[in-house]
Amino acid sequence: TYFFFFQAEDGIRDFCLSRGLGDVYKRQVHGELSKFLMQRLNTLTQQLVAAQRQQDDVFADVQLAPPDVILGLTLAFKADQDPNKVSLGVGAYRDDDGKPYVFQSVRKAEQKIVSANLDKEYAPIDGTPEFIKAAQKLLFAGEDILAKYGRHVVTSQCVGGTGSLRLAFEFLNRFKPGTIYVSNPTWANHNQIVEYMGLRLVQYPYWCPKTKGLNFSGMIECLSQAAPGSIILLHACAHNPTGVDPTAEQWREIAKVCREKRLFPYFDNAYQGFASGDLEKDSLSLRIFLEEGLQFLVTQSFAKNFGLYGERVGAIHVVCNSKEIAERVSSQMKIVVRVTYSNPPIHGARLVQTIIGDSQLFDEWRQELKQVAGRIIQMRAMLRQELESQGAPGKWDHITSQIGMFSYTGLTPKQCDLLTQKYHIYLVKNGRISICGLTTKNVSYVARAIKDVVENA
Fold it and tell me: 5 pLDDT exceeds 50?
């Protein structure tokens, strides 16, 4: 750059001098050229410094990841100053005042744990025997499946529902690799975990936009064509995001396909008792697969049904046919845990095992859970009633036929955007809403807003 600049300047100077323009060169040309040179030198210096820094930075090639959708909704909702704002995005229970709810049975269990003056030693790799027993009792609704079905269950405490999923996929990928089939749609983190691990993912049909219900024929057709050994991820109850579950007869048909095609069922169980308020009813799918003689895996979360969101309490259960196989599975599952986080946390687990292990607290918790589920069912009914009474176009019976925390409304991304922009109602763009965000105070407002966007967007 310097070489060519000075060559160019020499040529311009000689030209000016040959025509008697030496004064012009000194006064104007030389000054402008010097100014240009300094600007160019500054630019080059900055580029060289930036290039050197990038070369020295070992993380220079790391790309900025897209923001988490739900987290983005939460931040935007908190920053919104509109007094009528409503959050229908986050999957966490709220009371009728829109506030987080802590179970009174959990409060009592905490007091009991504190008064016991327990130590803070490491838990066993797979969790305490008391927690394992409690988790199994809850999962199978109190049934002794070893005695009833001759089955053996390997249980390991994990770090929340997501941690359970991650470890389960690690275990399966190591000892039973296969294509992962997930419903379309499913909880976004299912897809993210599978893809992040580099596993092969296939979506099976589930949601039917026309009926706003289950596309059962499409689901069965797809699973019937899956290769033997494929892993079928199923939602034990209260499907997220649709709120649409198979009937008992449909679960039996799914189990039949899994058995005949030698597919491996994997249940994600995040809402037991939270969907209907009935532990036995919400564990129907698992009992059907037990009755059909299938081996399967279950990941279990205690976030929703105990309100222990921040305590991160979860578990993996593997149903095996023999004690010998169960012992092998347990030994390998412990290694997966050991190399990941070594030991599970103890406080949340103590809360769960204290409540389930105390008959009085367990009864209190079940009653509270029934009330929580009842409020969700009530808000579904109220939303449907408001939509229909206000004359919102279309049919809205799917609001009450779906179950659990979420409803797949059928709203389009454009309609969802308008709800946020015009009415300060925050929800994900696929039309999923958290029923827990509805209250007796805002449900009419939300219905009126939905009516408007359906009519005009």
Answer: no
